Amino acid sequence: MKLFITGITGYIGAVLAEHLVAQGVEVYGLVRTDEQAAGIQSKNVHPIVGDMSNISALLEGVTRTDGVIHTAIAHTADSEALDTLAVATMLKAMEGSDNPFIYTSGTLIYNDTNQHTVNEESPLQPLPFLEWKAQQELTVLQAAQRRIRTIVIRPSLVYGLGGGLVKGSIQLARHLQAANYIGDGHNAWSTIHVEDLADLYAKAVASAAAGSLFNAASREMVTMQQLMAAISRITGLEKRLQSWTLEEATHILGPFAWASSINQRISGLKAEQQLNWKSGNHSILQDIEFGSYPAAQ
Question: Which residue among 118, 165, 244, 280 is least packed, with the fewest CB closer than 10 Å?
């Protein structure tokens, strides 16, 4: 099988590519530079040079493969426009193929789950700046009517292999010389190890039905206070583990402060039941203190 991955040099995309190559999949990846192209070639991945605004590169990825996994996101002001263009372009090219197209969304479109654990049937309450993401999900799922095996995956807090949001939180704690959580820090997030997420993508490609939607979450949840306490210990900031207000956090973190203040209690049982998938025994707190994160410092 041949698969095209956007965002292949990103945190999720790079691990996914390695996972698929190990399974014997012929992987093609969208990269922005010749240097990135050389980097993925060394990992047995075929590069296609371009970005999400490059229609010819996107079409090449579609036509040369048997399916698409879209993990890319532009961290720019025009991210919505770029994502909308890229998805529309690839879906149009895939009409009538019955090939898989997986769209990567995120659980933040649920907004604050409070003390409830939500699933794929739960209503969405995206803040205005995330409404477009919910609309993209709908566009992708409806494209199943055009004979494309469309699938949406919503990862929760992705961690592991020394990367992701946890890496950023460690760097911020070192910069501030404090490990801060918002309020009492009792708000909890569901988690997913990046290798388990890669396995979920692979299983979805293999067997998910057209128009499927899956949350990507293990059965482990961690409070923000627990998360920052673990980070305080590996950074030597145990005495600087402290609360700050949402306003103080917003001054430093911008919109991400809101995400750090809410609950994200997510069920991944649907994927377990329908795709014969399960998360491994990776604990986020163990990984932070004794696993990949100390090794990456």
Answer: 280
Angle between helices 11-22 and 194-207 (to 10 degrees): 60
pLDDT by residue (tens digit) across 110-123? Answer: 999 999 999 999 99
For the segment(s) 2-159+192-216+267-280, the CATH number from 3.30.70.20, 3.40.50.2000, 3.30.460.80, 3.40.50.720 is 3.40.50.720
Three-state secondary structure along the chain?
A: CEEEEECCCCHHHHHHHHHHHHCCCEEEEEECCHHHHHHHHCCCCEEEECCCCCHHHHHHHHHCCCCEEECCCCCCCCHHHHHHHHHHHHHHHHCCCCCEEEEECCHHHHCCCCCCCECCCCCCCCCHHHHHHHHHHHHHHHHHHHCCEEEEEEECEEECCCCHHHHHHHHHHHHHCCEEEECCCCCEEEEEEHHHHHHHHHHHHHHCCCCEEEEECCCCEEEHHHHHHHHHHHCCCHHHEEEECHHHHHHHHCCHHHHHHCCECECCHHHHHHHCCCCCCCCHHHHHHHCHHHHHC
What one-letter code names the amino acid at 194?
V
Q: Which of 60, 273, 296 is nearest to 168 (CA)?
A: 296
Q: What angle do CA 64, 68, 70 make, to 5 degrees?
A: 135
Q: What is the pLDDT of residues 117-160, one digit of tens each?
A: 999 999 999 999 999 999 999 999 999 999 999 999 999 999 99
- Using the structure block, give the residue that is written with the tokens 């922005």: 32
Rounded (10°) angle between helices 164-176 and 224-234: 60
Q: Crossing angle of helices 79-94/55-63, nearest 10°? A: 40
